[in-house]
Amino acid sequence: LIDAAFTRINCQGKTYLFKGSQYWRFDDGVLDSGYPRDIAEGFEGIPNNVDAAFALPAHSFHGNERVYFFKDKYYWSYDFAQQPTQADCQKSSPSAVFNHYAFMNRDSWEDIFHILFGGRMTGASSARYISRDWKGVPSNLDAAMAGRIYVASHQPRRRKSRRQRKKYKTHRSPNLGFWRWLQNGSDSEGVESDWLSGSQCKTLQSVYFFVGDKYYRVNLRTKHVDLVQPRYPRSISQYWLDCPQPEEERT
């Protein structure tokens, strides 16, 4: 059995498998030449025998892709130093979705300084405690997975007259269903969201952590386990495999 796996979220989409002190890299299911390699060689600062890992896309064309690794009660973040450029991706497989995603997030001041002066930190961070930064997530994970990215309206509110407020009640936001999905904590039903303009939107994403026969859903922005009913951890078999709930748990 492998220890952890993730796929880089870019136009190349290479998949990495980790086991023991080595890792393998695949391109569309085909093993790249020169693999397996030692983790210490390709991911300096990341320990052997990791428990789980998940990857996140670069937040802009000038940002860095990031991977989180988990082992025992610690975690590490790893920022890739090399990744496909915008020109590389446009040659291979242009992505309208990522173009819009990058436009919504825009370039941060960190990106601007990097463009002007260079020198952004890449590679592995130091080990940090899971319990300190990922509130509610246990140690000794079995697996982790990043969920789909959703887009929610982020418009400033204006004061309205009583008549306007009454009218507003009958015209709810088109994203109301999405917020209900977050509150209910539904993990088995798909949700469609509109791709709105960059100045009016923000991206939202969850991460799923699996331990034994239970799982947790974490808000990636806050790094807190979502507070919903029923509470987390939840049964993997019930919510992911749609298995019938045991009678003793219903009462």
TrEMBL record:
InterPro entries: Heme_transport/Cell_adhesion (IPR051298), Hemopexin-like_dom_sf (IPR036375), Hemopexin-like_repeat (IPR018487), Hemopexin_CS (IPR018486)
The species this protein was found in: Hypotaenidia okinawae
Alphabetized SMART domains for the sequence: HX
PANTHER family linked to this entry: HEMOPEXIN DOMAIN-CONTAINING PROTEIN, VITRONECTIN
GO biological process: cell adhesion mediated by integrin; cell-matrix adhesion
Origin organism lineage: Eukaryota, Metazoa, Chordata, Craniata, Vertebrata
Name of the protein this chain belongs to: Vitronectin
PROSITE patterns: HEMOPEXIN, HEMOPEXIN_2
GO molecular function, one term: integrin binding
